[in-house]
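Severity: low
Component: inverse-folding endpoint
Summary: output formatting inconsistent between runs
Steps to reproduce: submit the following C-alpha cells with default settings.
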C-alpha cells in the first residue's frame, strides 16, 4: 500500500510540475500582448484576462508541490516534516489554495488586492522556512528536528532551498507586474501616452529577465530531484 501511495505522489509531482512550467509559458506569451501599444485597451484587457486565467493553474501547482514533496521526502526519511506534520502541511496548503483562488475570483477588485497581499505575506513565511529547513541539512548533514544523518543524500535539502529561491523570484515577478495595474488605470483615464507605454514595456522587460531565471531554476530543481546525484 505504501508503494502504491508513493507512486501516486510521484504521479502528482509530475502533473503539478508540468502545469507549473507549462502554465508559466502561457502567461509569459499572453503578457506580451498586454504591453503591445498598437492594440486597443479592450484587446489588451482581454489578453490580461487570459493571462489571469492561465496563471491560476501554475499558481496552484506551485503550492501543491509542497505537501507532495514533503510527503515523498518523509517516505525517503529525508524530510524535516514527519508524522502528524505531513497531514498538517496538506491541510495548510488546502487553506492557502483557497486564499489563492479567492484572490483569482475577486481579481480586479479592492477585495482581490487585499487577498493577494495576504497571499504575499504567506510567502514571506514559507520562503525563509524552506531556506532554513534545507540550509540546516546542507550545513549540518542532519535532518532538522530528527537528528538523523543524511549520509550524503543532500538532494532533498537542496530542493527545499531551491524551491524557496524560486518562490522568491515568483514574488518578485508579482511585484514587477503590479505596475501594470497602475498603467491600466492611467490608460483608462488618459489614453495611450509614451510615459504610460513605457511603464508596460519596462515592467515586461524586467519580468522577462526574472522569468528566464525562473524557468532555469525550475528545470534545475527538477533535475536534482530526478537524478538525486548528491
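Observed output (run 2 of 3):
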Amino acid at each position: 500500500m505504501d508503494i502504491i501511495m508513493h507512486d501516486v505522489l510521484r504521479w502528482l509531482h509530475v502533473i503539478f510540475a508540468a502545469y507549473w512550467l507549462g502554465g508559466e509559458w502561457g502567461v509569459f506569451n499572453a503578457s506580451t500582448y498586454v504591453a503591445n501599444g498598437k492594440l486597443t485597451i479592450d484587446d489588451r484587457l482581454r489578453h490580461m484576462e487570459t493571462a489571469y486565467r492561465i496563471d491560476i493553474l501554475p499558481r496552484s501547482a506551485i503550492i501543491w508541490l509542497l505537501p507532495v514533496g514533503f510527503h515523498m521526502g518523509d517516505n525517503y526519511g529525508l524530510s524535516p516534516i514527519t508524522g502528524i506534520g505531513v497531514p498538517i502541511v496538506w491541510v495548510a496548503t488546502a487553506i492557502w489554495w483557497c486564499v489563492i483562488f479567492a484572490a483569482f475570483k475577486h481579481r480586479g477588485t479592492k477585495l482581490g488586492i487585499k487577498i493577494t497581499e495576504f497571499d504575499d505575506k504567506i510567502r514571506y513565511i514559507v520562503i525563509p522556512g524552506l531556506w532554513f529547513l534545507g540550509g540546516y541539512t546542507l550545513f549540518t548533514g542532519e535532518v532538522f528536528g530528527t537528528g538523523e544523518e543524511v549520509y550524503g543524500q543532500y538532494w532533498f535539502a537542496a530542493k527545499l532551498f531551491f524551491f524557496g529561491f524560486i518562490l522568491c523570484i515568483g514574488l518578485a515577478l508579482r511585484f514587477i507586474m503590479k505596475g501594470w495595474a497602475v498603467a491600466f488605470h492611467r490608460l483608462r483615464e488618459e489614453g495611450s501616452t509614451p510615459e504610460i507605454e513605457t511603464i508596460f514595456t519596462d515592467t515586461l522587460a524586467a519580468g522577462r529577465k526574472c522569468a528566464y531565471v525562473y524557468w532555469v531554476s525550475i528545470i534545475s530543481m527538477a533535475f536534482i530531484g530526478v537524478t538525486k546525484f548528491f
